[in-house]
Amino acid sequence: MHYNSAVDAQRNLSERLDFVDATKVLFLSTELLFENHAAYIYTNRIFQQVQNEIVEAHQRCRMTHFEMEDNTEIYTITDSLRNKVVVRHEVGTESYHCDFSLIDRKRVVTAKLHSLYIHLVQRAQSNDDDIVALFDGMEELSQKLFGGTVPSWSSMDKAQRIEGLYGASRPSVVNVHPPDVVSTKGSGSSSGK
Questions:
Q1: What totals of helices (H) and strands (E) does the chain contain, helices first?
Q2: Measured in whole angstroms, how far is the alpha carbon of residue 156 from the centre of its chain?
Q3: How far apart are CA 38 and CA 95, in angstroms?
Q4: Residue-wise burial string across 141-172, b where 16 or more C-beta atoms lie within 10 A, e elsewhere
């Protein structure tokens, strides 16, 4: 009995949402045809997110040059920071190719490299051996790219690794002092003061 009620409630909710998606009038922010196409394809909630990105791109980017060579359309797009992107559209195969400027490529590669580094460190944090392996791999890559004589982790003993990681040697004796005695009796009331 409860199962049928749950299925009916879910079906009713689904039909109601389908009706709202089909009948709600969406307001388009630009005159771009693909915004209208996105309004037709996506649900209202997803369309609002896509529409925000379309509007932001529409405000920041402009097509500064168009050229047609053989069967290829070549668009030059410039954003508000004066970064240029050349988009080549092969009409016959409906394929696209983007050429970023050298500065943009460096920015994209640097962002991807940073993201990869953060991802690797997060994965390696739970295991000491993984951290050591990650460091060894980075040192080896550094040696191959830039040369130099940097000692690897595998050539150091554990004490040297800890000293290199924390910047201080491991103490031979650790003095632990007990905390001062604190009296909290009656601290919640204002009487007796």
A1: 6, 4
A2: 35
A3: 20
A4: eeeeeeeeeeeebeeeeeeebeeeeeeeeeee
Virtual torsion, Cα 25, 30, 34, 37, nearest 10 deg: 10
Q: What is the pLDDT of residues 45-61, one digit of tens each?
A: 888 888 888 888 888 88
Encoded tokens for 21: 């998606």
Q: Distance of CA 90 to CAs 33, 75, 95, 111, Å?
A: 20, 11, 5, 29
For residues 73 and 90, give the distance between their C-alpha atoms in angstroms, rounded to a whole number.
6
pTM, 2 dp? 0.34
72 Cβ neighbours under 8 A, 6+ residues apart: 88, 89, 90, 91
3-state class (DSSP) for residue 75: strand
